[in-house]
Amino acid sequence: MFTLKTLNMGSIPSALQKAERYRLLNEHREAESICLDILQAEPDNQEALIMLLLAYTDKFKTELYPAFDNALNVLEKLRDEYSKTYYRGVIYERRAKAQLNRSGPSSDDIAHEWFTKAMAEYERALENDPDGIQDAALRWNTCARILNENPNLKPAEENQEVELMDDYE
């Protein structure tokens, strides 16, 4: 086993920039590793926690578990309620998008469920938006557009009704 190197506090700002760059390059493993290094040096660094949470959600397309559970665990370490609510919405939205790429029984129902859960979190975030930035409104609108553009994404009950009607035709 290798002993990991420890970051000094002065290197944290540039490490955060590197983590963000790796996320943008779709290299979530590298971003995750850097965030873990930062959190080893400064366990309550909110920016690193958010970046780590986002790096986990980047994995949803290929590795839903344990990435989903890891993202939820990091979420609980965020200090303020607005951030918790907003990023819970992000987690749910990204899970819904990952579900869209899967084909299988009930995939559309499950995607719809996660989109609506995300939208509910964004609604709650908008009610408590301390800075009036409205990032949650932008994300809510994205979810709404995806649902509007994909008529096959419906609540499970509606899809079952359509299947029953198809059986009788």
Explain how this protein is built.
Helix content is 72%, strand content 0%. The chain is mostly helical. The chain folds into two domains: 62 residues; 90 residues. It is globular and about 55 Å long. The C terminus is likely disordered.
Write the layout of secondary structure elements.
Layout: H1 12-24, H2 28-41, H3 46-58, H4 64-75, H5 81-100, H6 107-127, H7 135-149, H8 156-168
SSE pattern:
HHHHHHHH
**Residues in β-strands, percent:** under 5%
Number of domains: 2
What's the total helix number?
A: 8
Helix content: over 70%
The helix-and-strand class reads mainly alpha
Q: What is the rounded Rg? A: 19 Å
The parts where pLDDT drops under 50 for at least 5 residues are 161-169
Question: Which geometry do the CA atoms define?
Answer: globular
Termini Cα gap: 64 Å
Number of strands: 0
Largest sheet: none
Average the pLDDT over all residues and give the rounded result.
92
List key phrases describing it.
8 helices; 0% strand; 169 residues; globular; mainly alpha; 2 domains
Offer a quick outline of the entry:
This protein is mainly alpha-helical and 169 residues long. The chain has helices at 12-24, 28-41, 46-58, 64-75, 81-100, 107-127, 135-149, 156-168. The chain folds into two domains: 1-62; 80-169.
